[in-house]
Amino acid sequence: MSAEIKGLNEECGIFGVWQDEHAAERTYFGLHSLQHRGQEGAGIVTVQANGRLLEHKGLGLLADAFSKPEQLAQLTGPCAIGHVRYGTAGTHGIENIQPFLFHFAQEDVALAHNGNLTNAVSLRTELEQDGAIFRTDSDTEVLMHLIQRQKGADFKARLKASLREIKGGFAYLVLTKNALYAALDPNGFRPLVVGRLDNGAYIVCSETCALDTVGAHFIRDVQPGELITIDDSGYHCEPFTTETQLSICSMEYIYFARPDSTIYGVNIHQARQRMGRRLAQESPVDADIVVGVPNSSLSAASGYALESGLPDELGLIKNQYSARTFIQPTQELREQGVRMKLAAVKAVVAGKKVALVDDSIVRGTTSNYIVRLLKEAGAKSVHLLISSPPLKYPCFYGIDIENTQELMAANYTIPEMCAKIGADSLHFLSLEGLIDAIDLPSHEPNRGLCVAYFNGDYPTPLYDYAATFKQPKTATKVMQ
Amino acid sequence: MSAEIKGLNEECGIFGVWQDEHAAERTYFGLHSLQHRGQEGAGIVTVQANGRLLEHKGLGLLADAFSKPEQLAQLTGPCAIGHVRYGTAGTHGIENIQPFLFHFAQEDVALAHNGNLTNAVSLRTELEQDGAIFRTDSDTEVLMHLIQRQKGADFKARLKASLREIKGGFAYLVLTKNALYAALDPNGFRPLVVGRLDNGAYIVCSETCALDTVGAHFIRDVQPGELITIDDSGYHCEPFTTETQLSICSMEYIYFARPDSTIYGVNIHQARQRMGRRLAQESPVDADIVVGVPNSSLSAASGYALESGLPDELGLIKNQYSARTFIQPTQELREQGVRMKLAAVKAVVAGKKVALVDDSIVRGTTSNYIVRLLKEAGAKSVHLLISSPPLKYPCFYGIDIENTQELMAANYTIPEMCAKIGADSLHFLSLEGLIDAIDLPSHEPNRGLCVAYFNGDYPTPLYDYAATFKQPKTATKVMQ
Amino acid sequence: MSAEIKGLNEECGIFGVWQDEHAAERTYFGLHSLQHRGQEGAGIVTVQANGRLLEHKGLGLLADAFSKPEQLAQLTGPCAIGHVRYGTAGTHGIENIQPFLFHFAQEDVALAHNGNLTNAVSLRTELEQDGAIFRTDSDTEVLMHLIQRQKGADFKARLKASLREIKGGFAYLVLTKNALYAALDPNGFRPLVVGRLDNGAYIVCSETCALDTVGAHFIRDVQPGELITIDDSGYHCEPFTTETQLSICSMEYIYFARPDSTIYGVNIHQARQRMGRRLAQESPVDADIVVGVPNSSLSAASGYALESGLPDELGLIKNQYSARTFIQPTQELREQGVRMKLAAVKAVVAGKKVALVDDSIVRGTTSNYIVRLLKEAGAKSVHLLISSPPLKYPCFYGIDIENTQELMAANYTIPEMCAKIGADSLHFLSLEGLIDAIDLPSHEPNRGLCVAYFNGDYPTPLYDYAATFKQPKTATKVMQ
Amino acid sequence: MSAEIKGLNEECGIFGVWQDEHAAERTYFGLHSLQHRGQEGAGIVTVQANGRLLEHKGLGLLADAFSKPEQLAQLTGPCAIGHVRYGTAGTHGIENIQPFLFHFAQEDVALAHNGNLTNAVSLRTELEQDGAIFRTDSDTEVLMHLIQRQKGADFKARLKASLREIKGGFAYLVLTKNALYAALDPNGFRPLVVGRLDNGAYIVCSETCALDTVGAHFIRDVQPGELITIDDSGYHCEPFTTETQLSICSMEYIYFARPDSTIYGVNIHQARQRMGRRLAQESPVDADIVVGVPNSSLSAASGYALESGLPDELGLIKNQYSARTFIQPTQELREQGVRMKLAAVKAVVAGKKVALVDDSIVRGTTSNYIVRLLKEAGAKSVHLLISSPPLKYPCFYGIDIENTQELMAANYTIPEMCAKIGADSLHFLSLEGLIDAIDLPSHEPNRGLCVAYFNGDYPTPLYDYAATFKQPKTATKVMQ
Q: What EC number(s) is this enzyme filed under (chains A, B, C, D) (predicted)?
């Protein structure tokens, strides 16, 4: 929680396993540890004993999608891929839940995808004009049509040719009876790792936390532009393109990934702690205590406390039980709806000057509420400290910011934001500070990070989005 | 979570409101903030416009029990009581979900109960022999039969006479079209507070966190042996018995209550922090970092860190999404089931000597797992520090410890426990330390706390349980 | 269907079996053949191996209430009772589905009931004033409270004493671990029969069709005022009262019972055929063909055709699939809702003078619709012939006619009815004709039939209903 | 019911409406009257105000698929198509429920299909080799791919070209925002009619009973090889091929269609009555009464009775409530499962020689059961009279007889069948008798009927089925 209490969403988590006696259960456990990447649907596909692929998918959390033992028990095969999904507007039906399973005369193929393609619309239009029929609104399906229309009998050759046609951010898992393929876009926008179980089975998944959960050891991060092939002869890495440039999404480090995951060698919790430390160096405030917004900002708050010497206090409590939102007849009750998620610990904050640490500001409305909550609980002042730069630009590679109208920082100056939020002061981590704090061991631009939502500097052409995206005039390139 | 990862359960949370336009929604919000007290069922009863009472109840979390808007929307009346329930073995049916609603010719009555009666079986036998027919297996229902068989037309008089007949731990809410009654047992084993909304409506509920969630201000803790009557003329307090002695359940402070709640003037988070400080004084260990078991032990861990000067680190991550447990075909997969709940942050604990703080040890099996998890993540040593004394005796007042066979501390010495758990050392807070740390402003025995599960010294006769409870020979009275 | 397309409903069907290896399945099959007696809920209770009783109940048809194999499979005991229910207004909750199961310290007791008690309200008031707490709104439960409050340890003696206190129409099944009891009211208002399987197990149930379905042979009709006790020593009949007078509900013969059932020696199909024949004698009409309203009036139509010499034609088709009624936005679409149930066969009726035979007129609105349907299909004329007398008075013994406002015949003369219905002529069977046609081998008044809904002549005092029932001025006693 | 108690199934019913304010409700009502054609799934698609198509589909009966008001209420557009489905083995998932809805960039298209294509497998293989991706296993989808791959912008031209490529039996509805198309295969194997509401809206549907139900008047039967286009300018008929030969499925007259429907000018009920009359001429038997197997054989039984002069009696009762079949632990209970559907009226059949009329024999096992049921009820003898010829050959045009192993008549002589069934004699209607009785006003072979399942004489090449279909040696061509 947070990114201003889930105003911002990742689009997916993926998990695959090859040759494990408990493939479906393993995938279930792995997906459960990736549940933070998507909560609107889940599915698992296995290669069954007869060589055909079998699926089960459902809406909601993994525990909802797999609510009966037989739903998992029927998936008996030793190779599997799975997916947890965050659904963007208008695409909430069960038919959009992944993996997508395609039955062909020769063999079945299943796809699971994390990311967003930037040329999906134009590819789809071309394909439809050539007679293709799509079953979903999802851009994921484009890849299957491309593969199917390539000439030649070699599936991997057709897959590689197709991967070169799609643009944007993508981490794909492709399952057939013969192999499990994993492919990462040429910028490596989304994380993807390979690991192995003690029984020899290979795992490919979004984050290392899933490897830990299923008891696998880490082998390597998949590199930008790579295709991994896992089959009964082992695992093989090869580039499907040589035009690559690492631009891993910086929001993975700031907010999306789980604190116990490590991406390209950098542990998430420690990166956030360093963001908090750097923020304390850049923006010291007059406070008695540091309070982090649970849970995603606790690491940054701890860093701010360590660097500033202020005590790190449990001033906000998150209710661990999910709350329905349909009960909102009046403004007064709506506020109580928010109170269902967060509570202030009066005994801690009463009479105190509070340094409140959060990871981002999206709409600002929840920030305003949290500040008010602390003041009603008796805080003398609340200084809001954000462990990342202002979010001003859309993302086209897999985060659900497609326009800037709802982004507070795209529409207001920092003093305006501070006034609207009602904080006594408002501070953001600088872009340089962020890049330094993450400290990726890379010599690529921005040290291998994508920071486009902060500075509008996209590492790729925007293809289908180029026409509609108008770069805001207020954009200030920070790093040049 | 914790009390060794939910091996120990509270039996209920209750909430009532009188004369609020949004009574059912308010109760829903209040119950949501009390969800940690019971997750197996929930219900709400309102006094409808026609003077009759209407209910909706369901199994599971509040969000499951009220899964459709109309289920709440039909409860339109301005007075309500609600209940969240933890069900003990064999009583899981929908018919045991509270509140219990009774339709009589004259008027309807609803009951909601938190606690456990110690003479329910003998009262029930007497009542059945006299022709009573019970609808449930729950001891809650006994009160209604007692009320109904009292002579006289004055409901409150019959209620008071009945309250004097029941023994044990109880916080009862009783709703009629004329009044909302709240009654607390003569020892005040369970917490119960009164508050008020700005619109004048009165609230009675288990914890102050529910008052904060619904926007009510705190008025007072209900006192042992008190009956509170709330009706259209205001609220009235009176004793139904004068033989009282405060013995509030110390496990409320140690584990059950929410950190932002305050019971008899003592904030839970701060009490836990003091337990951690005292533990550091009593049991310093050779460690590099302090790690608390999330979430309930984070306060104690913070106290241990502050007192010891060691850094308080986020070494364990709790998965915030609930995990189904039906997928457990093999021992190996069963361990992964536990890994679904907790993960170690390798980057934090690798190479470190860890002071691991937890609130209690129940069976010890999960403690063993957590120690192993940390060591597999590279911890050099793990010292397990428990912020309460060893749990050795059953509770008869509302916690689900009815026998001691499963309690590790009732069956093993501390060195044996340490060996079984695999920790490098194991330390418990002393009983004196616990009582001092909670620091209740009371002159009653044990400063107003019930600590019977630690020392076998029950503050009341045990009635129906007296025959079966054999005090273990190893029991050592600590406080005398 | 019919009784003017289900404007009239039976209240229940009951089935019990003692010592059959497949007791629950047998009860399921038996209840399925009694489904026409109640479609709003069903339940089965078995005596399990441990001597306790176990239940499963659900809303809707039997197939809905038992929608999962395990719901029936768990009911493993060799003795069972079951119930299918039609729910009167305001009592639709799951808590009113029978059998009712009561857990006592000594033993469990289950009750299933078909009928309506006429002194339930006054008995309930007395019992509540004496401290009883009822769990449902159902009058069924009264019997259990009476039993429980009788003195003495002999269950059968307490049951017999209690049966003498209740008034009205009732067929009760009472199941304990020691015996299955079946009791019929002193007038025998509702049918109840005993049978036996080839494996020696005894069956008690509402109609003989259930005996045939489960493969049992008929032993005898339970007689008015009898208590049957079935236990491991066999079956025993004894009167619980000697003040009896057979008054079996004539609507069982006219409409409720299944055509293949036989009650007190009279087969239902043949009784209806005789009603049709007698109607042809009493009311010949100028027609080309006879058309019965499917399915309940087909027997009477066949009798009318045989007697009149007119061809019996399939002029109306019933859609065998149930239709939801929630789709009724406009008057036009509402009529189509009715068309979902019945259709005219144009090729049969076009240009024909039709003798339309139905069993009763309740509200008359559906009769009007059916006449219109036939005329729109081209019928030259439609003569409506009802194989029973006009329904004018309420029933207090188990049919859901509790007031006469909705009964067309209680409010209009026959010519008025004919005009409103739009028929070319309208004829009812005479009361004498009905009694002769049923031809019960009895010397009791009305030859053992209750015909009170036709003539207002109730065979018992009305107790709780006496005050509110105002005998309509237009009442004409036919039989005196 | 019957075709030996549903051993034989139709594959679908379809319904479409253009420009009706209540299009979805109308389709719901229409589909309800076509429910006998398919009970495993149902769906409706409407053209919404924005020009896009919206669907709702579900498993089970229409009332199950549309179990909540909003499921229908959301379908607000004025043009709709709907489908009820019988699913063949292995294709039971929700993804196979029709209509199939395809979203394209330019416009959406929905398809509903009744029938079976004989060249679907080869077309699909070709299409997949050319890059097509199918979403279902259904042959219905082939048409959409063919349309999509035709050149040219004119949808109707592409549709007509595609219709010429598919072979077998088909009645297709195709819905776009611009028009509703209805197409019938060149043999007219399946029925399809056009009608009109008083409000001017056009209807196309499988049977005239659906026109009657929704209040539409009949315009015409769609002719073999015709494409009907309904749009805002009216309705237009045109052939898509001139190579046509009427071969309407004779089983529609014998068993599938509803008695009140009329196909190519012949009313179903009357055709069946004529089959019964002809059967009486061909096969008089020594009987006291005629009994029809309810409900589908009642018309034929009535004809047999009229012609033979024997009384038509209600000797078998059908339970109108559906029975679950999962309760079948033993052979004894399995028989009771069948008894749940049918019961003999002992009072009618005891001591009688019975002429039992049924429409067909499929497996013969249920025939055997019915004969036994009558004999156990006391019938002196049972002569089984089948109102159609022996079923010996598979159907490839839309009935679920794809192999002959289960067809009793394909494997045994008539005397062998009679012995196995246990009847006193067994008689089938002759093929000539059947064709004469249906009496279609056509000069095509077999007077416009397909009778291939009786004589193996298929009116078209069998394409994909030609290789696997081995014509049985015992086949005797009747009509040559």
A: 2.4.2.14
Give yes or no: residues B224 and B288 share one domain. no
Q: How far apart are CA C70 and CA A149, in angstroms?
A: 49
Q: Which residues of C touch D62 (CB under 8 A)?
A: 321
Cβ atoms within 10 Å of B93's Cβ, excluding its own: 12
Domains contained in chain D, number: 2
Q: Which of D216, D248, D224, D222 is nearest to D235 (CA)?
A: D222
Any domain includes D428: yes
In angstroms, rounded to a whole number, what is the distance separating the alpha carbons of residues D396 and D167? 11
**How far is Cα D375 from Cα D383, in angstroms, rounded to an integer?**
11
D contact chains, 3+ CB pairs < 8 A: A, C
3 state SS of A230: strand
* Length, in residues, of chain C: 480
**What is the average pLDDT score of chain D?**
90
3-state helix, strand, coil in chain B (%, to 5): 30, 25, 45
Closest CA to A46 of A82, A83, A79: A79
Radius of gyration of chain C from Cα atoms?
23
From chain C, the residues in CB contact with B140 under 8 A are none
Question: In this complex, do C343 and D214 lie within 8 Å of one another by their Cβ atoms?
Answer: no
Based on the domain organization, do B179 and B276 belong to the same domain? no
D interface test, pick of C66, C260, C346 with most D CB neighbours within 10 Å: C260
Phi-psi region of A406 (alpha: psi -120 to 50; beta: other; left: phi over 0): alpha
pLDDT in tens, B63-117: 889 988 889 999 999 999 999 998 654 455 677 899 999 988 778 999 999 999 9
- C80 three-state secondary structure: strand
Is the link from the previous residue into B295 a cis peptide, with omega within 30 of 0?
yes
Are C199 and C161 contained in the same domain?
A: yes
On whether the CB atoms of residues A312 and B51 are closer than 8 A, the answer is no
User: D296 with D232, same domain?
Assistant: no
Q: Is A450 a catalytic residue?
A: no
How far is it, in rounded angstroms, from Cα C195 to Cα A225?
79
Mutate to test the interface with C, among D76, D85, D262, D332 (most CBs of C within 10 A): D332
Q: Residues A383, A284: contact at Cβ < 8 Å? A: no
Question: How many H helices and E strands in chain C?
Answer: 18, 24
ipTM score assigned to the predicted complex: 0.88
Q: From D340, D360, D349, D288, select the one nearest D316 (Cα to Cα).
A: D349
Give A-chain residues touching B262 at CB under 8 angstroms: 346-347
Cα D10 to the center of its chain, rounded Å: 3
Q: What is the gyration radius of the CA atoms in chain B, in angstroms?
A: 23
Could you give the percent of chain A with pLDDT greater than 90? 77
**Residue D6 vs residue A50, higher pLDDT:** A50
- The CA distance from B399 to D178, in Å, is 68
Q: How many CB atoms lie within 10 A of CB B336?
A: 23
Closest CA to B184 of B205, B212, B157, B202: B205
Domain limits at B136? 13-244
Same domain, D189 and D300: no
For B390, the token pair is 């060893």
Intervals of chain B under pLDDT 50: 89-90, 327, 329, 472-480
Question: For chain C, what percentages of helix, strand and coil (3-state, to nearest 5) are there?
Answer: 30, 25, 45
**CB C148 to CB B125 under 8 A?**
no
Residue finishing a domain among D244, D260, D289: D244
Q: Is residue B369 included in any domain, yes or no? A: yes
Would you state the pLDDT for residue C476? Answer: 41
Q: Are A374 and A352 in contact (CB under 8 A)?
A: no
Query: CB atoms < 10 A from the CB of D410, how many?
Result: 20
> What stretches of B293-417 adopt beta strand conformation (E)?
312-313, 316-318, 342-344, 353-358, 381-386
Q: How far apart are CA B58 and CA B76, in angstroms?
A: 18
